[in-house]
Amino acid sequence: MTLSPAEWQAFALSLQVAAGATAVGLPLAYLAAWTLARRHFWGKGLVKAAIQLPLVLPPVVVGYLLLQVFGRNGPVGAPLAALGITLPFTTLAAGIAAGVMAFPLMVRACRLSIEALDPKLEDAARIHGAGAVRRFLTLSLPLSLPGILAGATLGFARGFGEFGATIVFAANIPGETRTLPIAIYSALQSPNGDAAAARMVTVSVIAALGAFLLSEWLERRTRARLSGRSK
Amino acid sequence: MSGLSIRATIARTGFELRVDIASDARITVLHGPSGAGKTLTLHAVAGLIPCPDARIVLEGRELSSLPPQRRNLSMAFQEPRLFPHLSVRRNILYACRETDGLAALADALDITNLLDRRPADLSGGQAQRVSLARALLRDSDLTLLDEPFTGLDASRKDAAITLLSQLRRRILMVSHDPGDAARLNAQVVHVANGTAQ
User: Fold this and answer.
1) What confidence category does residue B2 fall into, taking pLDDT thresholds of 50, 70 and 90?
2) Which phi-psi region, left, alpha or beta, contains residue B83 (left: φ > 0; alpha: ψ -120 to 50)?
């Protein structure tokens, strides 16, 4: 069983979109998680709800909203268009759609690990001269690494499988926005596409399983390192 | 003016402690029954609990307005609070990057063979000694020790007391054992019935 060049292209594009969405989204998600876990501010509930919204909205609705915001007449799209930048129906749009859909999952995983940090350890660091940046780099960040890894896995998986928001915001352009789920959908729509769909489904199952096992292994290793046991 | 002067009102739900301590002694021991506020007093000096009206003066330097990391203190907490992902060596050096005194201090506290281990591999007494080493290696203006001998067997407690007696550093510590203060030639502050003086 081998994929055709077009199917490989869809697979590679999915990997690229999911990796990009995770790489860009994860630091932002960690920042948002840190703010939600550690800061008290007016409207925090609203911010939390807005971040979680893509989890409960139909993905097609998210795609539509992205199109409204980043479209040629949208509040962000119009100034970008004036600069000659068009986002909808591009690979970048597919990345944005995947990132937005994966964002709440990444924030949640990071937030749980940040909330689990023991503030007493931070007090011990503070009294021994560690300022905020050093405490973050030497304690909070390494100790929340399992949550970051979990967030990366969930985000990547969500981005890899994204369909609804992507097809609305980025459309179905071969080589540009036709990711693996969209390619499977297209194959199923064509009269003789069953075999192609089955091939791509098999590849996605293998890829997802491989990614899951890799992340499990990484997470176990990280937890073992952080648990405090000598090798 | 005293070397160490602490005036503060520490208020918690259903509890208030008025602290008025002036000490010129190198070692000051807070002594009193459980729940009297000894640990709270140490935490107030460290700046780890809000204490708006506190006035803490150390060798003429006002500490109260400074955040904990800028007070130049060190502390061994009641529970060791070691960083679980760092080796014992890196835990101790977290407070002080100068490695010069580490070997001698580790030898005095009998933790030399523990330096490359992780905190989870340590017994309670070992972790307590590592925590003490972390507080003592740092060249701080005041070392806060909260029941530093808890979990130590008699010979190691003796060694720790000898070490504290020999060190030329100002120490404010909590101890339940009145004998400790005598052996350390320390000034005793009684903490009881809502006052520490």
Assistant:
1) low
2) beta
Domains in chain A with CATH codes: 5-226 (1.10.3720.10)
Residue of A nearest to B42 (CA): A127
From the list B74, B83, B121, the residue facing A139 with the nearest CB is: B83
Question: ipTM higher than 0.85?
Answer: yes
Residue B84's closest chain A neighbor by CA? A228
Inter-chain CB pairs, A–B, below 8 Å: 69
In 3-state terms chain B splits into helix, strand, coil percentages (rounded to 5) of: 35, 25, 40
- How confident is the model at residue A212, as a pLDDT? 85
- Contact at CB, B119 and A228, closer than 8 angstroms: yes
Query: Average pLDDT of chain A?
Result: 92
Whole-model pTM: value is 0.85
The residue type at B115:
L
Q: What share of chain A is helix, strand, coil (3-state, %, to 5)?
A: 75, 0, 25
What are the φ/ψ torsions at residue B9 (nearest 5 degrees)? -115, 115
User: pLDDT of B147-189, one tens digit each?
Assistant: 999 888 899 999 999 999 988 899 999 988 888 888 998 899 8
Domains in chain B and their CATH numbers? 4-196 (3.40.50.300)
Q: What is the pLDDT of residues B54-77, one digit of tens each?
A: 899 998 899 988 999 999 999 999
Q: Which residue of B has its CA nearest to A126?
A: B69
One DSSP character per residue, B113-163 reads GGTTS-GGGS-HHHHHHHHHHHHHHS--SEEEEESTTTT--HHHHHHHHHH
Q: Is the per-residue pLDDT at A179 higher than 90?
A: yes
pLDDT digit string, tens, across residues A106-149: 999 999 999 999 999 999 999 999 999 999 999 999 999 999 99
Asked if the Cβ–Cβ distance from B68 to A127 is below 8 Å, we say yes
The amino acid at residue A208 is: A
Interface contact A129-B95, CB threshold 8 A: yes
